[in-house]
Every structure is written in structure tokens, then in C-alpha cells.
Write a structure and sequence with these properties.
Layout (H helix, E strand, L loop, with lengths): L1 E5 L4 E6 L2 H7 E2 L6 E5 L9 E8 L6 E11 L10 E6 L4 H10 L1 H6 L7
Parallel strand pairs: 2-5
Antiparallel strand pairs: 1-2, 3-4, 4-7, 5-6, 6-7
Length: 116
């Protein structure tokens, strides 16, 4: 997974090449879905982010908008990767559906089921 920030317009470019990387980046517990984006660029909570996403087998880059909901700074303890968590906009429901299709097996493996 690679991120190339473009400083002029605040546009990020995120390439997710494997289902494993997508599973690690996707946040299904965030309302509307969310993505973790590794970056050393400084962001503020609530800041709007625009990104071009290259997703696994998709031919075209997908424009994505979101709001920063957490920041992991460069100097984070425990060797955590610096980056931001963004909450996807409601307009990205199609993207969330694609992501959940790609990672369905991993998402379902951790869910509890009622056997009674």
C-alpha cells in the first residue's frame, strides 16, 4: 500500500493492491465506513480529505471524500504507522459495498453468530 500526498490541492493518492491491505485499512465500525490512510502529512480532526483510490482490480481510480476522525502522529508509541482515519461520506455507499465484497470473508470471520 502506498500513499503519495499532493501538497498543492491536498489530494492524496492511495493504492490498495491486495485484499489483506484492504482489510487492514477498512474500518467497518465507522458510520458510512472508513479508511486508514498512512501518511506523514499533518491533518486536523474534522478536516475534509479528497483522495484518489486505486483499489485492487478496479481499472479506474476512485475519487473518495472523507472527514478526518483520528490522527496517528509520526512519533506515536508502539511502532504504530503514522496516518489518518477518515470517515467516508454518505455519497461513497457504492465504494463501501465494493470494499465489503472484497473483504467479506475476513469481515465475517470475526463476527459472532447466534446459534440458538
Amino acid at each position: 500500500m502506498s500513499v503519495v500526498p499532493r501538497m498543492s490541492h491536498g489530494i492524496l493518492s492511495l493504492a490498495i493492491e491486495t485484499k489483506e491491505d484492504l482489510y487492514k485499512s477498512y474500518m467497518p465500525y465507522v458510520k458510512n465506513g472508513g479508511l486508514f490512510i498512512p501518511t506523514t502529512r499533518t491533518y486536523q480532526l474534522g478536516e475534509e480529505v479528497f483522495m484518489l483510490l486505486s483499489l485492487i482490480e478496479e481499472d479506474d481510480k476512485i475519487p473518495v471524500t472523507g472527514k478526518v476522525i483520528w490522527v496517528t502522529p509520526r512519533a506515536a508509541q508502539g511502532g504504530r504507522i503514522p496516518g489518518i482515519g477518515i470517515q467516508l461520506s454518505q455519497d461513497d455507499a457504492t465504494l463501501v459495498s465494493k470494499i465489503e465484497t472484497y473483504v467479506a470473508a475476513q469481515l465475517n470471520s470475526g463476527r459472532r453468530t447466534n446459534t440458538m
